[in-house]
């Protein structure tokens, strides 16, 4: 790419504006020279001033009108000459300014193009570095045991599919009714689920590990359910409420190893989601390399043992009564590819706190990450999301803060879907 000044612009006759400008300048000085010489020639009527001074005085007294006419004529010539010179100057200035603007426009255009190229290269290099790190991590998984577990318990590594986003719906062995309530409302099933992947690049899976006794009754029940719906992502992880931070970490590592997505989403199985709105929200941040999207909060650090959300490592957060750093609430959030890859590569040394959403937020401290607080991801289930849906601006996700999800979600998910849903066809008519 050439960074120098552009060539002088040429007119229709092939003569550059620079030569035209030089010609005009020369013409201007030539005109000034001619006019000066013209006025320097003595008037023959005057002759010898010393010999005819008396006669001229008499003539001026006798013929005042003639003298006035000469003065007027002289003034007209001066005015014409001045106007001529000013016109030349204006033409010259116009041409010079035109050429300057053209050259300045070329420079600005080249600077803008160079900036775009640099940004593209920076993003490409960052992506390649992350892919290399992910490949190394995947190789390590192959040697240690892949995080992806199939029904037979053997490792399964596949070619990564390029998609828009992966949505992992965190679930448990006891949550069959919750999963069915989601399948019957906002999550496509069967052929529609495959169509969603093919046409929109959206992957949706219920995420679950295995029981303490692999191959037991609980695992066989999930295997049978997966055989029917084919909508599970199985993790090399032992299920348990106090292992949510570990489960979240393994989910992102497993998803990155399997799909090459722009975004990776974690959502609980008692939250209502409008897929079209989620896709539109993410699409606005698609060009950014490291984004962390959710409803940002900073709750108190609970030091009292036995209470819900108790933090055993409360002393790390300073004096009693302090609050956590800013992080996304755990019901639903999304992270970009680079951040998910970062978690995958560094999962063995990332510290896990008791609360999963706090753990995720802590992993990004010290990184160049853009935190995006999007309140459309945390609307109340009623009447907040209903009002917004009626106004033509449906929420991306809805739940009840008091229940950390939709209260009695199995019974109410269909109701919330009817009141707050964007419409079952919205996802197919939304462009990302």
Automatic annotation (TrEMBL):
GO terms for molecular function: galactosyltransferase activity. The chain crosses the membrane at residues 20-39, 78-97. It is found in: Golgi apparatus membrane. Its EC number is 2.4.1.-. It comes from the Eukaryota. Its cofactor is Mn(2+). Its main location: Golgi. It is a single-pass type II membrane protein. Keywords: Glycosyltransferase, Golgi apparatus, Manganese, Membrane, Signal-anchor, Transferase, Transmembrane, Transmembrane helix. Belongs to the glycosyltransferase 31 family. PANTHER family: BETA-1,3-N-ACETYLGLUCOSAMINYLTRANSFERASE, BETA-1,6-GALACTOSYLTRANSFERASE GALT31A. This is Hexosyltransferase. It comes from Acer yangbiense. The lineage of its organism: Eukaryota, Viridiplantae, Streptophyta, Embryophyta, Tracheophyta.
């Amino acid at each position: 790419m050439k960074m120098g000044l552009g060539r002088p612009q040429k007119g229709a006759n092939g003569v550059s504006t620079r030569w035209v400008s030089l010609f005009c300048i020369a013409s201007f000085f030539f005109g000034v020279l001619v006019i000066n010489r013209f006025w320097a020639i003595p008037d023959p009527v005057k002759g010898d001033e010393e010999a005819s001074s008396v006669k001229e005085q008499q003539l001026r007294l006798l013929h005042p009108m003639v003298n006035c006419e000469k003065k007027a004529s002289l003034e007209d010539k001066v005015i014409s000459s001045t106007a001529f010179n000013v016109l030349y100057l204006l033409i010259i200035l116009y041409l010079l300014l035109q050429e300057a603007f053209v050259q300045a426009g070329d420079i600005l255009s080249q600077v803008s193009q160079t900036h775009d190229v640099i940004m593209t290269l920076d993003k490409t290099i960052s992506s390649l570095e992350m892919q290399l790190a992910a490949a190394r991590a995947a190789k390590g998984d192959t040697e240690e045991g892949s995080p992806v577990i199939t029904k037979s318990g053997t490792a399964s590594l596949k070619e990564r599919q390029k998609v828009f986003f992966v949505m992992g719906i965190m679930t448990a062995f006891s949550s069959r009714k919750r999963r069915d309530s989601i399948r019957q409302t906002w999550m496509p099933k069967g052929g529609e689920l495959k169509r969603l992947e093919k046409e929109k690049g959206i992957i949706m899976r219920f995420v679950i590990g295995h029981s303490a006794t692999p191959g037991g009754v609980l695992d066989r029940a999930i295997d049978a359910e997966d055989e029917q719906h084919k909508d599970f992502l199985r993790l090399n992880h032992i299920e348990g409420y106090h292992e949510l931070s570990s489960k979240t970490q393994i989910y992102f590592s497993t998803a990155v190893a399997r799909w090459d997505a722009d975004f990776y989403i974690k959502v609980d199985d008692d939250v209502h989601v409008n897929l079209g709105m989620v896709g539109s929200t993410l699409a606005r941040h698609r060009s950014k390399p490291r984004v962390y999207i959710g409803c940002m909060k900073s709750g108190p650090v609970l030091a009292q043992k036995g209470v819900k959300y108790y933090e055993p490592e409360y002393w790390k957060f300073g004096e009693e009564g302090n609050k956590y750093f800013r992080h996304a609430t755990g019901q639903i959030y999304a992270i970009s590819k680079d951040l998910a890859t970062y978690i995958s590569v560094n999962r063995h040394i990332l510290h896990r706190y008791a609360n999963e959403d706090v753990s995720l937020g802590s992993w990004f401290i010290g990184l160049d990450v853009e935190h995006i607080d999007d309140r459309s991801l945390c609307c109340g289930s009623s009447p907040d999301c209903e009002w917004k849906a009626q106004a033509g601006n449906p929420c991306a996700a809805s739940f009840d803060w008091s229940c950390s999800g939709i209260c009695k979600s199995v019974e109410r998910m269909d109701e919330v879907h009817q009141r707050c849903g964007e419409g079952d066809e919205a996802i197919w008519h939304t462009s990302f």
